[in-house]
């Protein structure tokens, strides 16, 4: 595994397992598969309804809590509801802390919600805090009115939307860039058939998906691919046996379309900030 170092010194795996749209009833089973494949970073959220399944899988795995980096996202609005929601999330997880807590998306009361995250950090309920789906304007407002610079911004990022505009801002403020939908969901199959991607896969003896994930992780962009297919889960994790050259990474930048696969949220459109 390779790691990124957050702005408070906490180390986070550069590759994790996503649980978006994983049914709560099958979360523990899917996570057992992911943990057995080697994943040690799990991404969940209050809105996914599967935090309890993550906790169940961790308990059943026999792994020590400190061996697994767990991220959750708050979906409440305002200080009191966010504070209460964090405690409820910890109860569902069956742990006294998360490794990373992030605001799922901007709301009218993001500043108050973030203050609840800052207090959770001070109380030891999380090791780091951050945001998701915040554009540069959203982050600027947050940074200028908070005590702690977010450690992470989790935003849609993949070959077709490389987030070069946001990435420059994140690098400037020492905020880790994390990619949701790193394989572009419905457009993933199309990306994997690109001749340039297939050629690199053939050169290194790997899959096209592995090339696309390596394209991100080598740029220190955290990726959290999600799959419920055992072969894909294992393959997505097995990306550290090869490295693309800087020239090969540069050759793939031409595929950036600068737009979302689903146009959500609209504040992330590149003309919105």
- Overall structural class, as computed from helix and strand content, comes to alpha/beta
Strand content: 5-15%
Query: Helix count?
Result: 11
* CATH H-level superfamily: NADP-dependent oxidoreductase domain
Q: Work out the number of β strands.
A: 10
Question: SSE string, helix = H, strand = E?
Answer: EEEHEHEHEHEHEHEHHHEHH
Provide an overview of this structure.
The protein is of the alpha/beta class and 273 residues long. The protein has 11 helices and 10 strands. The strands form 2 sheets. It has an 8-stranded parallel beta sheet. A two-stranded antiparallel sheet has the order 1-2. The chain is globular, with a radius of gyration of 18 Å. The protein starts with a strand and ends in a 21-residue tail after the last helix. The model has no long low-confidence stretch (mean pLDDT 97).
SSE topology:
Elements: E1 3-5, E2 11-13, E3 17-18, H1 24-37, E4 41-43, H2 51-61, E5 69-74, H3 79-93, E6 100-103, H4 110-122, E7 129-132, H5 136-144, E8 152-156, H6 164-172, E9 176-180, H7 188-192, H8 195-204, H9 208-217, E10 222-223, H10 230-237, H11 246-252
Parallel strand pairs: 3-4, 4-5, 5-6, 6-7, 7-8, 8-9, 9-10
Antiparallel strand pairs: 1-2
Helix pairs in contact: 1-2, 2-3, 3-4, 8-9
């Amino acid at each position: 595994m390779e790691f990124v170092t957050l702005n408070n010194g906490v180390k986070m795996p550069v590759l994790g397992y996503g649980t978006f749209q994983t049914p709560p009833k099958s979360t523990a089973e899917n996570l057992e598969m992911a943990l057995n494949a080697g994943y040690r970073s799990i991404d969940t959220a209050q809105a996914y309804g599967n935090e309890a399944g993550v906790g169940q899988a961790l308990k059943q795995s026999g792994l020590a809590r400190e061996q697994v980096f767990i991220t959750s996202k708050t979906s409440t609005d305002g200080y009191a509801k966010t504070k209460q929601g964090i405690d409820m999330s910890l109860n569902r997880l069956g742990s006294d802390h998360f490794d990373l807590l992030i605001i799922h998306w901007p709301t009218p009361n993001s500043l108050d919600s973030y203050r609840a995250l800052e207090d959770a950090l001070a109380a030891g309920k999380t090791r780091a805090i951050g945001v998701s789906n915040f554009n540069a304007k959203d982050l600027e407002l947050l940074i200028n009115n908070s005590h702690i610079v977010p450690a992470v911004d989790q935003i849609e990022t993949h070959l077709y939307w490389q987030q070069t505009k946001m990435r420059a801002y994140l690098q400037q403020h020492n905020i880790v860039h994390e990619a949701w939908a790193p394989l572009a969901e419905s457009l993933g199959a199309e990306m994997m058939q690109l001749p340039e991607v297939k050629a690199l896969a053939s050169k290194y003896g790997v899959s096209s998906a592995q090339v696309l994930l390596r394209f991100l992780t080598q740029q220190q962009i955290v990726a959290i691919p999600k799959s419920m297919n055992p072969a894909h889960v294992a393959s997505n994790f097995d990306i550290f046996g090869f490295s693309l050259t800087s020239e090969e990474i540069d050759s793939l930048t031409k595929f950036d379309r600068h737009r979302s696969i689903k146009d959500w949220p609209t504040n992330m459109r590149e003309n919105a900030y």
